[in-house]
Each structure stands twice: as C-alpha cells, then as structure tokens.
Amino acid sequence: MISKSKGLSLLEQMVTIRCTEEHLLELFSKGHLNGTVHTCIGQEACAVGLISALDLEKDIVFSNHRGHGHYIGYSDDVRGLIAEIMGRSDGVCRGIGGSQHVQTKNFYTNGIQGASAPISVGMAFAEKISQTGAVTVVNLGDGTFGEGAVYEAMNIAALWNIPIVFSVEDNRYAQTTPRHLQHAGDLSDRGKAFGIQVHKVDGMRLTNVMQTAKIAVDAARSEHRPQILYMETYRFASHSKGDDFRDLKEIEYYKNQDPIKQFSDEIGLNENLQQVIDQARHRIKAIVDELIKDAL
Ligand SMILES: Cc1ncc(C[n+]2csc(CCOP(=O)(O)OP(=O)(O)O)c2C)c(N)n1
Ligand SMILES: [Mg+2]
Prior knowledge:
By secondary structure, this protein is α/β, with parallel strands linked by helices. The chain is built from ten helices and eight strands.
C-alpha cells in the first residue's frame, strides 16, 4: 500500500515530466531548442515506475532517444535538462549532448537505436566483476528490439550471468511504423530463447509497473541474471515533431488510460491532482521564463 505522501511524490514526478515535455514542444515550435525532441507524454508511468525500483546510489540507467522522463525521474534536474536542449553552457552536458545524449552520475543516453544494449551489458559486467552489487538498466523501444545488437547483448548477458534489466517500453510504433509491420511473432517472448525471464506489465498503471520493475531489478541483483521488463504503453504525442499517421480513435482510446489520471484515481489523489499540476506548471514556467529571458 502506498502512503499519501509517497503517492503525492510519485504523482508529482509524472506531472513534472509531462509539464516539462509540454514546454519543450512549445519551445521547439518557437525555434528555441537545439536539435530534436522526442517526448514520452503518455509513457510517464514506465519511467517513474522503473526508477522507483532502483538504488540510485549505485545502479546504472542507460536511456534512449525518448529519455527525458528517465532523466527527470533519476535526477529531478528540470533546469539542467531544458538548458541542455537549448544548447546552453549551463545545461547538464554543457549544451553539447542535447536531448538524446544526456549524462549525469550513473545516467547515460544514446540516440543510436540498439547501440546502448552491448554498451550496457559491458557496464553491467564491469559492475559484476567489481562486485559492487549494482544493477544496470537499459531502456529500449519496441522498434529497437528488432536491432541485431540487442540479441548479441542478450546472448552474452545470459551466457555470462550479467545483472542487467532490458527495459522495453512497447508503445506499438517505431517512428511511424506499427509493430505488426516490422516484427514477426510476439516481441515479449523473444528473451525466452536466451533463458531470460520476462516480466510483462501494463505500462499505463504506475503501481503495477513499480511492483513488476522491483521484481525484475531485485531478481537481476540477487540472481546475477539478466531480466526483461516488458511494459505495454502508448505515446500521446507524435514520434518527434509532427510525424504522426496514427488513427485518431486509437490515440483517444489510449488517452483514456492516461497513467497520471489512473494513478490519482487508484490511490485517491483526485482532489490533489489539479494542485499538483498547477504547482508543476508554475515551477517549470519559472525555469523556462528565466532561461528564455537570459538567452534572448
Ligand atoms: C540505428 C538507428 N536507426 C534509426 C534511427 C532513427 N530512429 C530514431 S527513433 C526511431 C524509432 C525507434 O522506435 P522504438 O524503438 O519503438 O522507440 P520509440 O521511438 O517508439 O520510443 C528511429 C528509427 C536511430 N536513431 N538509430
Ligand atoms: Mg516504439
């Protein structure tokens, strides 16, 4: 059972991610950003639920092109992220990395689909032989799950008993290509051939993701075995900046499963939701206003 204060903190994290990304889309449309943006609006429960299962003192997170939610969940550094994507020298990577190449402490990202999988397995192997007890998590999309490097990484991780979680956010599309046009069979089954346990969960429900992510992370840590966390989710916004050919009825169907709304309903925080949203908007608007004023 989640306490009210814990529930509020989790809700704040999801709302902060959403508000930050809504601002990023607006900043992009006004030409204030450097490079591209991919938002995880609709997928916030995956980011917050996964991060909640980690020991942030030592565990490693390797995110991907859709990584703002993972980064904010890991660091709460909204200002550093926005400044980074504006290309400012006070961004988290001095404005050089941009949206897709953000690094702080044990948090990394890489915009090249699948490239992060072998790198993460190597990092997890280094932690294993150094006996730190750290778990490494690598975030992959459903489309990226079709990259050959991912299977080489899963093979070695299973063969060498490496404590890594392959965390898949299956949002049903890779850019504009629906899953069924690029993958044969059931994607969530693919780990089985390597003897990797798959933990499948409804990625629109934060409490479910938290529980399942914890089981997967704990198993990787205690059994020194790779795991797959497979979250079924949906992005509400376009792939990146307007490239969207999805059926409007389908988008509506998933918007009715909004993870923020579902979570506040589930743990009785409906009355607090608007206040949480207003506070997050106020906080992020102040950051954006200050950055834009300074930049202009
Ligand atoms: C090797 C490589 N090929 C192509 C791209 C361009 N690209 C960026 S995101 C993306 C789709 C990824 O789909 P998925 O893995 O499902 O993640 P999602 O965008 O849905 O979160 C593609 C093809 C890339 N970044 N790297
Ligand atoms: Mg996808």
